[in-house]
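RECORD TYPE: protein structure
NAME: Citrate/tricarballylate utilization protein
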Amino acid sequence: MPPDDLTDEADRVLRICTACMYCDGLCAVFPAIAGKHDFTPNDLDYLANLCHNCRGCWYACQYAPPHPFAVNLPNALAELRQRSYADYAWPRWLGAGFAANAGVVTAIVGGVTTLTLLATALLVPAEVLFAAHRGAGAFYQVVPWPIMAGAAAAALLWAVISIGVSAISYWRSIAPRASLGATLRALVPALRDIVTLRNLGGGGPGCNDASEKFSQQRRWCHHIMVAGFLASVASTLIAALYHHALAIEAPYPLTSLPVLSGGIGGVAMLIGIGGLLRLERRADRAPSAAAEVRLNLVFLVLLALVAASGLAVLALRDTPAMGLTLSLHLGLVIGSFVVLPVSKAVHGVYRSMALLRAAIDRAVPRPRRGGEE
Ligand code: SF4
Ligand code: SF4
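PREDICTED:
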């Protein structure tokens, strides 16, 4: 659908919903539209990212096709959500990366990984690259620490700046007029909604992961994946502490904190990703947007490659295969950082901001018609 049609369709459906409100209680979207009759483009960008695509309102809707109203709120908001990722991307030209996401991500991550492997093969003498290294500093005999840390940090800095500027631009579009006090009061409820994924709960019984049956599978798979990711980040931070503060160089013993945290984190990520991919394969496509499904799949596969290659480094670290495995993992990590601003990762930032806006709106009672509070 051309952009104007997307806006018109979301506006049409939301007007029906705001008159109906049967789904009030399913998620934060319905309290946010209660009593509203006009939706500005900024309102639509806010609501699109507030929706968690739990599909509850699709299966509950008495006006869904074949009813002539043909209400499909999850699809209308998912289409807008995809467009908002491109609209707020910084630099602006990055927005095009969302349209052909699989090709862009494959080309960039594949290119960075190939370059990293080539550079390793050309610059590291074969007797070092294919030797079994053991003991402190083994990894850095293949890829020196300043190169490893410097390349990863530069790629991550790019992602943080790009996503940060996009996030500021999005927040300026959706921010409500509220005092600093109201904003601060909203922080804890917003954080609770972000961390617990309350809006994937369908108001209690769960969301419609694959059909009209309720389930908490998507919510739990997401929790497991994020917990695994955070454990992997913790592993990197603890390893950096060991390196800089304690002057102990990797690789660390299997029972050390960085290895336990990274190993458990990598396995948890793969379990969560596997569950999410299975749900995505079984999901009813009608309440989704095809572009969003593609974005989800690309990001999940990318995360799985990073996690699996990290575990491979752990498994092969005492063997002659460590050098190339480490180089492969490093290339995948750097490539992933480079494509973060055009990946599904951005949904976490926009959705968190939409949840903060919803929490602020709950903290500041909306004036009723006639100006009464
Ligand atoms: S999705 Fe359907 S049932 Fe739910 S509020 Fe909208 S129109 Fe009503
Ligand atoms: S799909 Fe779920 S989260 Fe989105 S509007 Fe419907 S009930 Fe709310």
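COMMENT: Residues 92-361 form one domain.
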